Structure formats: structure tokens, C-alpha cells
């Protein structure tokens, strides 16, 4: 496949997990990539793995907790590549703490990184995509964006918010040639639980047992790319846990019984 040949694709959270896997898959199709995350050394590692020539890759490190310069970041990309075809809002982190024990500051941080950064970066690229009369915006949500779960209150709230924003954005921009995809992964084998924050803001540093035998980030990336190619509006990726989305919709009482039996980890 070479459907993404020479397409300019900006990936946040590109230093590990799904973002890293997406970068490698797109590189196989000779896309031109912008890799963003906090850790520049890890972005350089991923850049080497893509095997792309220097002309076709850009490392753009920044912290999603501060996207006040989002327009400046987008301008840097335009200076190098002249356009932005796809924005993949993938960066963020999860939570492992009860709502009543989590400080409001941690709640705000989770919302800033997992919701407001997506909004800021999207607004930064929109003017260019409108000028091009084309573009594709991807928001990596979660099945936690479809229903709440133990120890995920603010993380789930942020993911729910993504659906409201990006569903609205799709309606407002599709006539201008801009497409929007919301991706809802279930359990994917990444470092998401290791990097989750506790009530105090400390790092959880434990791998959830439910993620040990989960779908690989590589398979998840392949399915995301398929969703982009097929112009999907919302997709669910994972194992049997994604069935809970349908169960909640059509059998809410059964959902209530099943969700209470699940382990938070």
C-alpha cells in the first residue's frame, strides 16, 4: 500500500505505544512524518526506526500540558513541509485513583492533556486544512469515552469530552474537505497503566494485569490506518471488552451488572 505516500502526518504521543506503532506503519507507506512528545531522545529513537530520510521526518518535542504555542508549532511544520494532511491527536495519560481522593489540580491536569491539547492542536491546523480544502483529523479516545469505570473518573471525563467536540467539528468542516475520525481503543498492550497518575499525581508504575495479554500496539495501528482509509467516523479497537459499548447501549441493566464485576486493573 502507498495510499499515504508523501502525505504529511503529525503524530502526538509518538515516543511509545500506539503513536510509535503508527509512525512505523506510516513510514512503510513513505509518508512524511512529524513526531511529537515530551521526550526528544525517545522521538529520535522512533525516527531511526522509521528509516525515513531526514528530508521526510521532523522531530517536534513539546509538552501537551502547555499548548499555548500550538499555532507556532503548526507554523514550523508548514515551513518545512508546506502542508499538513493528517493530524493524529494521540498523546495523553491515564489515571488510577478514586474521584473522591483525587485533587482538583490532578483533575484539571488530566483534562488539559487529554482534552484541551487535542482541541488546541486541532484549531492550530484547521486554517491550513481549510486553505488546502482537505485534511484528516484523528482523535484517539478510548472505550472510557463511552462509559465510566473504576479509578478513571477524570480520564473518562476527558475522553467523553472529545466525542462532543470532534463530532461537532466533523459536521462543521466536512463540506470544506476535512474528515474527522474518533478512535476508541479498549485494552492495548502499551505503557498506559505504567504511566497513569495516582491521586497524589505520582506515577502508578504498575502494569495492569488486563493489559498483559491485550492487543499489540502494532495491530491497533494497522486498524487505525484502515479506519482512516475507509473514511470511518468512529471505530472501536480491542478484544471482547469493546462489546461493552454495545451492551451499554442496548442492554443497560445487563451492562450495569457486568461492569460492577470488572477489576479496576
Structural write-up:
- This protein has 265 residues and is α/β, with parallel strands linked by helices.
- The chain has one domain: 3-Layer(aba) Sandwich (Rossmann fold).
- Helices cover 45% and strands 15% of the residues.
- It has 9 helices and 9 strands.
- A 7-stranded parallel sheet has the order 3-2-1-4-5-6-9, sandwiched between helices. A two-stranded parallel sheet has the order 7-8.
- Strand 5, helix 5 and strand 6 form a beta-alpha-beta unit.
- The longest helix has 29 residues, at 104-132.
- It is globular and about 50 Å long.
- The relative contact order is 0.13.
- The mean pLDDT is 96.
In a nutshell, what does this entry contain?
The chain is an alpha/beta fold and 265 residues long. The protein is 45% helix and 15% strand.
Number of strands: 9
CATH class: Alpha Beta
- Strand proportion, as a percent range, falls in 5-15%
| Outline | globular
Total separate domains? 1
Structural class: alpha/beta
Topology as a string of helices (H) and strands (E)? EHEHEHEHEHEEHEHEHH
Q: Sketch the major β-sheet.
A: 7 strands, parallel
Amino acid at each position: 500500500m502507498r495510499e499515504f505516500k508523501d502525505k504529511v502526518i503529525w503524530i502526538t504521543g509518538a515516543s511509545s505505544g500506539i503513536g510509535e506503532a503508527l509512525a512505523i506503519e506510516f513510514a512503510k507507506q513513505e509518508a512524511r512524518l512529524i513526531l511529537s512528545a515530551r521526550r526528544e531522545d525517545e522521538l529520535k529513537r522512533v525516527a531511526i526506526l522509521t528509516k525515513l530520510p531526514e528530508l521526510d521526518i521532523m522531530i517536534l518535542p513539546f509538552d501537551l500540558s502547555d499548548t499555548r504555542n500550538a499555532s507556532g508549532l503548526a507554523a514550523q511544520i508548514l515551513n518545512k513541509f508546506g502542508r499538513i494532511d493528517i493530524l493524529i491527536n494521540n498523546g495523553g495519560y491515564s489515571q488510577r485513583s478514586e474521584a473522591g481522593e483525587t485533587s482538583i489540580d490532578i483533575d484539571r491536569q488530566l483534562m488539559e492533556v487529554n482534552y484541551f491539547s487535542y482541541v488546541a492542536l486541532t484549531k492550530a491546523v484547521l486554517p491550513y486544512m481549510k486553505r488546502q480544502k482537505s485534511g484528516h483529523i484523528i482523535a484517539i479516545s478510548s472505550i472510557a469515552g463511552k462509559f465510566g469505570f473504576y479509578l478513571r473518573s477524570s480520564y473518562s471525563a476527558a475522553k467523553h469530552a472529545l466525542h462532543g467536540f470532534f463530532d461537532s467539528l466533523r459536521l462543521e468542516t466536512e463540506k470544506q474537505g476535512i474528515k474527522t475520525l474518533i478512535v476508541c481503543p479498549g485494552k492495548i498492550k502499551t505503557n498506559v497503566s505504567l504511566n497513569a497518575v495516582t491521586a497524589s499525581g505520582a506515577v502508578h508504575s504498575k502494569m495492569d494485569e488486563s493489559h498483559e495479554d491485550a492487543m499489540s500496539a502494532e495491530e491497533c495501528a494497522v486498524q487505525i490506518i484502515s479506519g482512516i482509509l475507509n473514511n470511518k467516523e468512529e471505530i472501536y479497537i480491542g478484544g471482547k471488552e469493546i462489546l461493552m459499548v454495545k451492551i451499554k447501549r442496548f442492554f443497560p441493566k445487563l451492562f450495569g451488572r457486568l461492569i460492577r464485576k470488572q477489576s479496576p486493573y
